[in-house]
Write a structure and sequence with these properties.
279 residues; alpha/beta; 434 Repressor (Amino-terminal Domain); Endonuclease, Chain A; 12 helices
Length: 279
């Protein structure tokens, strides 16, 4: 008799996903081979998902939904997967991403690392791998995080992308992430973004000193009705601010920061200089 691993739905969201997959399969009288035939995935893959040895993916969830007749329903595995994916993100960030997708303008300020929307896949993978090395996320979660970032970046490739204003602290381009080759490619990516018609890229130089108004990253989202939301993060969580007075103050500070920062032309010159030092 084949050994059957007992599942613990309370063992975490990945375990709950797997236990539900097994329950629905068995409710229909299907074997793992039967579900494999219906989805195109191997029975070994299905077993690994059911026993939480492998995390699900969006594509797997969608074919499972089709097999079970759950597509676009409240019980869809697609929805459950999205909740799982958000589980690797900072609290409050999924709500920000929802607003980011609606934006007509985005204003970003970042310290230490290149803003996610402008990262190369290799740069993003190094950052995710570093989190794995510190034990804060798993390798599967790192892959999900990088895939989620790639999905976010499609926002800038759509037919009518939002106008993107980016101010980066000088540390973003001076701090070497992933070695010289990865960093040189990242700086080249920034130079390409700087040429786009709806992108304004500036560096806030170290010389600003105490005149830099922000000590944490800040994102400002302008929505289609021209209302503005502000998003900021601590080490533990993110917060989306809607109160008009607080947002107006942050927007004014952002404009002061942009005025103190290098011009777009001088920013390109600095990035080119730093990039040459990487080659």
């Amino acid at each position: 008799m084949v050994n059957r691993k007992e599942l613990d739905p309370d063992g975490g969201p990945v375990a709950a996903y797997g236990a539900r997959l097994r329950r629905l399969r068995e409710d229909r009288g299907w074997t793992q081979e039967d579900l494999a035939t219906r989805t195109g995935y191997s029975s070994k893959h299905i077993s690994a998902v059911e026993t939480a040895r492998r995390s699900s993916t969006l594509s797997f969830s969608r074919v499972v939904d089709a097999a079970f007749g759950l597509t676009e329903t409240d019980q869809a595995f697609d929805r459950e997967w999205r909740k799982l994916r958000h589980g690797v993100l900072l609290e409050g960030f999924p709500e920000y991403v929802h607003q980011e997708r609606r934006a007509v303008e985005l204003r970003l300020f970042e310290i230490g690392i290149v803003p996610g929307l402008l990262q190369t896949p290799e740069y993003a993978q190094v950052l995710a791998a570093s989190s794995v090395g510190r034990g804060t996320i798993t390798a599967d979660q790192a892959a999900e995080r990088v895939a989620f970032l790639a999905e976010r970046q499609m926002l800038l490739e759509q037919q009518r992308p939002p106008t993107l204003f980016v101010v980066m602290d000088e540390s973003c381009i001076r701090r070497v992430v992933g070695g010289r080759e990865v960093m040189a490619a990242q700086l080249e990516r920034l130079l390409e973004f700087a040429t786009r018609p709806l992108t304004v890229l500036q560096v806030a130089p170290f010389g600003i000193g105490e005149r830099r108004p922000f000590d944490l990253p800040v994102n400002l989202v302008t929505l289609p009705d021209w209302s503005v939301l502000a998003y900021a993060e601590s080490q533990a969580q993110g917060h989306l601010e809607r109160e008009s007075g607080a947002v107006a103050s942050m927007l004014a500070s952002y404009h002061r920061l942009a005025a103190e920062s290098l011009s777009p032309a001088d920013t390109v010159a600095m990035i080119e200089e730093v990039r040459k030092g990487m080659l």
